[in-house]
Write a structure and sequence with these properties.
single chain, 277 residues, mainly beta, Elongation Factor Tu (Ef-tu), domain 3, Jelly Rolls, 2 domains, six-stranded antiparallel beta sheet, 2 helices, 23 strands, 7% helix, 44% strand, Phage tail family protein, Siphovirus-type_tail_N
Length: 277
């Protein structure tokens, strides 16, 4: 039976807690309730209320461990070392083997230790998932149906034609998220476009209705990148040359078309994480 693991990481740190402490056993992970945030407005003389679109607050992620110490000093030492590893000045990511294709952006809320004896104990460590959602461990740059990091229980479908780089004017992008990928919610989405268009071009998501328009002529050796809501041409801000719009991705398949007289698509690449509630 494979040992269950827990890993914490960021750009400068990568620690497998269950390797760092050989006697530490990961038991289970529990995602606690999601907080719905809805703003309502009451209008006098009208039934009910008007409600805004729902946003989601942070939620707790509780990881349960068991540790069997050699003696009381070993047990207390591990408690102290865990606190030093988990209480950090900056947030970090956590992933675990029960759901290896998912990561959580977290900070440590509390480290409650229930003693089972003078040298053994269970650890319920509570993290706050501050983004309000989890996301795929990998981006679509690393997409593969054969990888353990892309799981069928997390929105994936058995379609060998799922690709995220296209060179035609009409194509589909699959979003395996349980929610719409939306840059204004800080979802990671980068669209890199190499299009030859003497009269500019429009990237149209016909599924959501979103349209991103670049108004000026563009050569095939130019690159337009839509990084979330921010457009760049050859690494320079170019919002003034656009319609100031951005692209979202609905769950499932999204039908795209590149519009524009004389527009020729060299390559369009989508890079994003799936997001999960």
């Amino acid at each position: 039976m494979r040992n269950k693991t827990v890993r914490i990481f960021d750009e400068n740190m990568n620690i497998v807690l269950t390797d760092e402490f050989s006697k530490l056993k990961f038991l289970k992970a529990t995602e606690e309730g999601v907080e719905n945030r809805i703003t309502s407005t009451e209008i006098q003389g009208v039934d009910g209320v008007l409600v805004s679109s729902t946003s989601f607050g942070p939620f707790p992620l509780v990881l349960s461990f068991f540790y069997r110490g050699s003696d009381v000093f070993d047990y207390k030492s591990v408690q102290k070392r865990l606190r030093g590893m988990l209480y950090r000045r900056t947030p970090f990511y956590i992933t675990h083997s029960d759901n290896p294709g998912v990561k959580y952006a977290v900070y440590c809320d509390e480290n409650a230790i229930t003693d089972m004896g003078y040298q053994n104990g269970t650890f319920d460590i509570t993290f706050i998932v501050f983004k309000g959602y989890s996301e795929s461990l990998m981006t679509t740059d690393d997409f593969s149906l054969n990888s353990e990091y892309w799981q069928f229980g997390n929105g994936l479908v058995t379609d060998q034609d799922i690709v995220y780089v296209h060179s035609k004017r009409k194509f589909k992008i699959f979003n395996g998220s349980s929610d719409t990928v939306t840059p204004i919610h800080r979802h990671h989405l980068i669209i890199k476009m190499n299009v030859k268009a003497p009269n500019g071009f429009i990237l149209h998501n016909k599924t959501t209705g979103d349209k991103f328009k670049y108004k000026k002529a563009i050569r095939d050796n130019d690159t337009v990148i839509l990084n979330g809501v921010y457009p760049f041409k050859n690494k320079k801000r170019c919002g003034i040359d656009t319609n100031w719009e951005y692209i979202t991705l609905a769950p499932g398949y999204n039908d795209f078309e590149v519009l524009g007289d004389g527009a020729i698509v060299k390559e369009i690449k989508f890079t994003f994480n799936y997001v999960y509630r």
